[in-house]
Amino acid sequence: MKKDAFKNLSEIENNQTAFSLALLRDGILNDILSDDANDILYYAGKEVARQFYTKTLNGIQEFFNAAGWGTIEISSQKEDKETWLLSGEVVKIRHLATEDPAFFLEAGFLAQEIQQQTHRSTECSYQTDDKTRVIFTVYID
Q1: Global pTM value
Q2: String of DSSP letters for 67-110
Q3: Residue 69: which region, alpha, beta or left (left: phi > 0; alpha: psi -120 to 50)?
Q4: Cα end-to-end distance, the chain, whole Å
Q5: Domain boundaries along the sequence of the chain
Q6: CB-based contacts of 12: which residues, under 8 Å, 6+ apart?
Q7: What's the short name of a Pfam family annotated to this entry (predicted)?
Q8: Nearest to 136 by CA among 79, 77, 55, 92
């Protein structure tokens, strides 16, 4: 897929169902990748960000929506740390479909996007909040 395919992300209709995402991400991929799933998904998220660099905070939001990952918004922004909140039906359904859904793909994507925008090293961690949203913390060196 070419980078230009996602030039105007707000115009892409999301036809992917949340259940199919949960089935692939939290079921099949975890079984195939086994103990390496979290690391591989984190670095896969970073690679997706390299291929589809959004260049703006708004672009990150558009990408999450187009990818079917949910609704993301920045909740706090400091020089060395950003906090992002992910919510939406897809988050709720993934929590219903599996006991402990992983959001490492999204974390890797966020880390790389912020690194490309700030030109500083980043890492991202996450925690789930009452099974309706995910809190991402991007640490910026």
Answers
A1: 0.87
A2: HTS-EEEEEEE-SSEEEEEEESHHHHHHHHHSSS---HHHHHHH
A3: alpha
A4: 32
A5: 37-140
A6: 6, 66
A7: DUF2507
A8: 77
Q: From CA 140, how far away is CA 122, in angstroms rounded?
A: 5
- Identify the band that residue 79 occupies on the pLDDT scale cut at 50, 70 and 90: very high
Superfamily of domain 37-140, CATH level 4: Trafficking protein particle complex subunit 3 (3.30.1380.20)
pLDDT of 94 > 60? The answer is yes
Provide the token pair at 135.
Answer: 């809190």
* Residue count (the chain): 141
